[in-house]
Amino acid sequence: MEGQNIASVEEGLEVDPGQRVKTEDEPMESIKPEESEPEATKDNNPYAYLQRDEFCSERYKIELRNLPKQYGFNELKKFMMKLKLNPHKIKKGTAKGHFVFISFRTEEERDKARATLSGQKWKNKVLEASFANAAKDPLVKQRASLEGKGNEEPEEIFTESVDEMVKKSTTPWFDVPYSEQLEKKNEIVRGYLEGLKKELFRTNMDLRKLPNPLWVSESILPSPVTSHYRNKCEFTIGYNPENKEKTVGFRLSSYKRGSKAVGKIDSLIHLPEKMVQGAQVFETFIRKSSYEPYDPETHVGVWKQLTVRTSSTDLLLMLIISRKDLSQHEVEILKKDLRLEFKDLKSPAISSFFIKELEVQGQKTKNEPELLFGKGYNAEKICNLSFRISAESFFQINSLAAEVLINAIKSHAELDDDTCLLDICCGTGTLGLCLGKFCGEVHGVELISSAVEDARVNAKDNGLEDKCQFYCGKAEDVVDVLTYQTKKKKIVAIVDPPRAGVQLKVLQTLRRCSKIDTVVYVSCDAEAAKKNFVDLARPESKKYRLNPFVPRRFIPVDLFPMSPHMELIVILQRIQDESCNTIPLC
Ligand SMILES: C[S@@+](CC[C@H](N)C(=O)[O-])C[C@H]1O[C@@H](n2cnc3c(N)ncnc32)[C@H](O)[C@@H]1O
């Protein structure tokens, strides 16, 4: 399963199965889409993108060599922060040599880093730092290679219809019977567990003493709905190369792979009708407008992305525009037009409409979405509790299957009144609140402030505010404090991170807290989470205190029918004594 299946990135598509925080080198750092793609002009100059105003991480880059044999990107980042340097991104060099590229937001930051790091000693190595060239624009590279092959019109070439290709990449199993999909997912889990077991045994020889079977692996729990289940999508706005029409849909593949074609979404079985209608009315609107879709190649154009969120009662739209070529007056007129067009629409009725601007170079703070009309959030019910979900907060993508997931956690987490539940990466508080009535107290931590606000409101609306507290911050900074805060005898930690997993600091905290014997890990990318499982299971040392945790039960849950993705609940328990006894498998 290496690199595929159990929920790796949806190949070639700009849509996440689980959540929208994209991660790259390090867990939990979000990349803004406009920062991640070098861009070019149509004149085939692969470096033309550097001359534009927008922020581009390729512009200010250094190459760092003579690095130690073993180190982590987090460690390197911390080392740089100690030296008061401010790296933006760290990437592995592609050649055989052991080196990395580090990019910065400004020229000053880059120059300071080069000067400071050159000759700096780190882990017994003397570092070498030099200025690095920006990467070539991938689209121009691809175009040049097509031209080199004698193509007169180096346009994108498609072997089948764009819409069909979108369907096959978003819902690759659309024509596989559901029972077969479930069996395929069980098979993926079986393969994954074989690899995991080997890795755990390699990391901690003592685990071989564990009673057999080491764990129970349950069959996948099906989704109660197999179609129209997806409650959030981020649609790209661009051109469909076949009809040359402005289109709100999915990109066929990422810009890095050399495509900017957008295909339509009306035949995608996993999208609710209301979501498709929302995208379509907006598409009709932009087709009448003189403004162009934002072109990732030239950075010209206005319409960039439409996020559509649905719930049983609501429809929320968030439009992202590039306002670089618009005056303030034009932006105000656009907002007025959007209100006029959509505020009183009956079919579909739009309950909230946000507009958000793309970040531009040098901008320090994140752009907040502006509410043009409506209540400003979606309302949803899960496990008989009501939830408010803001435009940018995370919420489980398949609400009905999320209930299945929560009930499965409840059955195995052994919660009671003496238990404090730590909800690590809590989003809008869904897991903590739904499980709140089965335990003594809940402390949740979440990075996104609007989600934390939602979680607090949700606690209040459901009469759980005395029991459930939510904190805004990075889990790696906050969890330690939370473990000391509770007077409860027992702590159960739920970890539901972005796909790259949590930082080591979080795992070290869980390891050294003697009140924690059970960790419930929920992963939408088990392959990426493997490193976290291995670290939790390492033998006791200065770095990893107290006895290790081992996975004792795996419960896959199908939140993403028609695709190979799934959520995996892993119940980890602390080994109790030197002979590796654990709490018996129930
Ligand atoms: C997969 S979602 C889970 C949300 C929640 N548990 C739920 O079920 O709705 C992961 C969440 O982790 C948050 N997150 C990302 N990095 C984080 C960090 N360093 N510390 C705390 N939360 C983080 C994201 O904003 C997102 O809400």
UniProtKB/TrEMBL annotation:
The keyword rRNA processing does not apply. The keyword S-adenosyl-L-methionine applies. One of its GO terms (molecular function) is RNA methyltransferase activity. CDD domains: AdoMet_MTases, RRM_TRMT2A. Residues 1-47 are annotated as: Disordered. S-adenosyl-L-methionine binds at residues 396, 446, 496. The active site is at 524 (nucleophile). Residues 17-42 have a biased composition (Basic and acidic residues). Pfam families: tRNA_U5-meth_tr. GO terms for biological process: methylation; RNA processing. Keywords: Methyltransferase, S-adenosyl-L-methionine, Transferase. Belongs to the class I-like SAM-binding methyltransferase superfamily. RNA M5U methyltransferase family. This is tRNA (Uracil-5-)-methyltransferase homolog A. The lineage of its organism: Eukaryota, Metazoa, Ecdysozoa, Arthropoda, Hexapoda.
